[in-house]
Write a structure and sequence with these properties.
The protein contains 4 helices and no strands. The chain has 119 residues and is mostly helical. The N and C termini lie close together (6 Å).
Length: 119
Amino acid sequence: MEWKALENDYLAWMQEEKKQVEKRMEVLRFQGCGDDAMLEKIRLNIYDAFEAVIRAGEKQKAGEEIAFCLSRLEGIPAMWEEKLKKAQLHENAREVAIESVKLETARHLREKFIEGMEA
């Protein structure tokens, strides 16, 4: 798929996904589930970070946008994997939950980007 079409489709999909995360976060807050709402807020932050990566892709040389985005979408989660390992080692359940949400969200967003490339 051509970069501009991929970028537009992916960002449109991402906006819809973010709306769903925001709704879940608000419901959880309303229900008094503060910890779960916090995890949804973290998920939303990952969407924002990955959106920034995609937008930065448009500043790359023609033909290099996808490779740039893929390298960032794969590289960013590497530090979270390390933090997850440390949290597991120290049996820190809160940090395990946070890093797990980050990694799960990053994996979901990266997979969707790759699906768009293959379309």
